[in-house]
Amino acid sequence: MEETLESMMSAYAKGDRLAFARLFERTRGGIYSFFLRSIRDPRAAEDLMQTTFMKLHASRSSYDPSLPLLPWLFAIANRVRLDEFRRRHRLPHQAGEEALEQVEVEDDPAERIAKAQRVRSTDAALDALPETQRIVLQLRHVEGMSFAEIAQVLGVAEGALRVRATRGYEKLRALLQEGGSNEA
């Protein structure tokens, strides 16, 4: 029987350091991808991944083993991501997803058009999406989370996430068609 993430985390919370090594090995790729897709800088993604696992370590005693680990871990990663965007955009500490979405709306449209014209592949098209849509699509399709789990991770209503996902799919389809790809 395969050891679950939840059992690894429970063992780690009780002091089993080897359980953490196994947990880290099984989850680091997803956390790194989460940051890389969001930040688009491998070095920053690595740093943010490390910060996430330091925060996991600091809060390991508050983990509830009756709940799935991945939404809890990605909620920690999302808070790290938001902290990074607050720092980059000089937003107040209490600013959340809505403030980030507003910053994206205020971005220069010419820059978005130029970015869309460079689209040549699915990855490039995903990179052209606004952060708030890209992160929902990544958690849904790369990490396999449900909308309820994503809502828990991002602290956003499930209905709002579904709207973001729909808008993201529409933009992704348009970008792929514009780039001459039939992958949509």
Overview of the structural elements:
The structure is a single chain. With 184 residues, the chain is mainly α. It has two domains: 1-95, Orthogonal Bundle (Rna Polymerase Sigma Factor, Chain: A); 96-184, Orthogonal Bundle (Arc Repressor Mutant, subunit A), CATH 1.10.10.10. 74% of the residues lie in helices and 0% in strands. It is built from ten helices and no strands. Helix 3 crosses helix 4 and helix 8 (131-142) crosses helix 10 (158-178).
What structural class do the secondary elements suggest? mainly alpha
CATH architecture of the largest domain: Orthogonal Bundle
Strand tally is: 0
Question: Number of DSSP helices?
Answer: 10
| Percent in strands | under 5%
Q: Termini separation (Å)? A: 38 Å
Order of helices and strands: HHHHHHHHHH
Level-1 CATH class name of the largest domain: Mainly Alpha
Average residue pLDDT: 84
Supply the number of structural domains. 2
Radius of gyration: 17 Å
* Unreliably modeled segments: none
Oligomer: single chain
CATH topology of the largest domain: Rna Polymerase Sigma Factor, Chain: A
- Largest sheet properties: none
Residues in helices, as a percent range: over 70%
Which descriptor suits the 3D outline? Answer: globular
Q: What do we call the CATH homologous superfamily of the largest domain?
A: RNA polymerase sigma factor, region 2, helix turn helix motif
